[in-house]
Write a structure and sequence with these properties.
Blueprint: H1 2-22, H2 36-47, E1 58-64, H3 65-83, H4 96-108, E2 111-117, H5 129-155, E3 159-163, H6 170-177, E4 182-190, H7 204-207
Antiparallel strand pairs: 1-2, 2-4, 3-4
């Protein structure tokens, strides 16, 4: 029995490692819908992620169909405002063309998951030092939850794109969502219609320093 459990554990470990190395950011999606039970497997993977002080600061709002289109129309309004120069991110305006391309990708994906930090408010408001540290810790926690979802999606045969370009339409989106929570970003989900190669990564010796 112990041998079987050990063998099963090794196999699960191999599957997890394969998902880490096989995961890609998908920018072309099939028109095929994603069943709710499959979506819930993905969301449950995010739910069980580790979080600072077990605060579990994440909230997910899942959009599809006409509701998704409403969301993206609101994002489009925000991007137009940015293009007109009415902006909270003047040093980041170079990223607007990329954000417009991201919006086209979001149009293709059947599902958009919006991610909120329930312990934080707008990033455009001042916070004190203690609040900033909590915000950093909670953002790390949300990053872990999102990565869990991306890896679960890989195992479920889904493709995903982790999106931060929602920042350009922050004001419009939080108003549409009717929330005071911090909008962290979104994840586009669907069945992939491409198999992109892995993008370049820094070598281990470039990013690791041993002190022992």
């Amino acid at each position: 029995m112990q041998m079987q459990q050990h063998s099963k554990g090794l196999e699960m470990g191999r599957i997890a490692m394969q998902s880490i190395y096989n995961r890609r950011s998908i920018r072309k999606f099939q028109g095929k819908s994603v069943p709710k039970d499959v979506l819930e497997e993905l969301l449950n993977a995010g739910r069980v992620a580790p979080s600072a002080k077990n605060r579990q600061p994440w909230k997910y709002i899942v959009f599809g169909g006409t509701q998704k289109q409403e969301l993206l129309d609101v994002m489009q309004t925000g991007l137009v405002r940015e293009e007109q120069g009415i902006t909270n991110l003047p040093k980041s305006r170079y990223g607007i063309p990329d954000a417009k391309n991201t919006l086209k990708i979001m149009q293709q994906a059947p599902i958009i998951i919006v991610i909120l930090n329930t312990n934080a408010k707008s990033p455009f408001l001042p916070v004190d030092n203690d609040e900033r540290i909590m915000e950093i810790c909670d953002t790390l926690s949300i990053g872990a939850a999102v990565e869990n979802m991306l890896l679960a999606a890989e195992e479920l045969g889904l493709g995903t794109l982790w999106i931060a370009n929602t920042c350009f339409a922050y004001k419009e989106l939080v108003s549409y969502l009717r929330t005071e929570h911090q909008l962290v970003g979104a994840v586009a989900v669907g069945y992939p219609d491409e198999t992109p190669p892995q993008r370049s990564r820094k070598q281990l010796e470039e990013i690791v320093e041993y002190r022992w």
